[in-house]
Amino acid sequence: MIVDDEPLARERLRRMIETFPGHAVIGEASEGRSAIERVSELAPDAVLLDVHMPGMDGLQVARELANTDLPPAVIFITAHSEHALSAHNSQADGYLLKPVRRDDLAAALARARQPSRAQYSALAGQLDGRGPMGYVSARTRDGIERVAIRDILYFWADRKYTSAFHLHGELLIEQSLATLEQSLAENFMRVHRKALVARAHVTALKYNSDGSACLTLRHVATTVPVSRRRLAEVRALLES
User: Fold this and answer.
1) What is the DSSP letter of 130?
2) Is 239 helix (H, G, I), strand (E, B) or coil?
3) What is the pTM of this model?
4) Most exposed: 30, 46, 66, 93, by fewest CB within 10 Å?
């Protein structure tokens, strides 16, 4: 997303970014307050942010964005080099002087692909199980990946790690099943020492030929085993 009060500056940046593979401009803003609203609406990965703007300046915008749930990377773009220290203190991921050179912009966007300090800070509670459970998150080789709780079908524990099976795949997380069970008790039920299942996605309780029980879930062909110890509780819950 591009934030600059000069239309020609926004157009020049847009044209450069459109030549970069894997990048797209999803929105623009010409002043600070609307920029914050657009970031909330569009959730861009990175914001190219002018420092000098009418009303709320870029430094104020960056400070507000840093306090959001998952802040975007911020790259300051300005004609005033004296703001470099302030930009650094605002946890910016880059600082470019106008007129912006294509190579410098490409390098700044490449650096912005790595999670920022603000992003790591915002996700720290979720990574260690202390934060609000709207999402589960994990560090991957590409950065930080997170999945909305509403999209998770079930959790499966194996040794020291837990897998979150969701609508779009699988995510390996560090939170224990016990921690997840406590945080998500309203929407998930423990059906096995290794399994925690989303109640909303359960379609049936079935019995195998050997007498063991399992649950079938929406959106996935795999069944989830139900332990004998949990069977009566699961059956009562489904019947209610």
Assistant:
1) -
2) helix
3) 0.51
4) 30
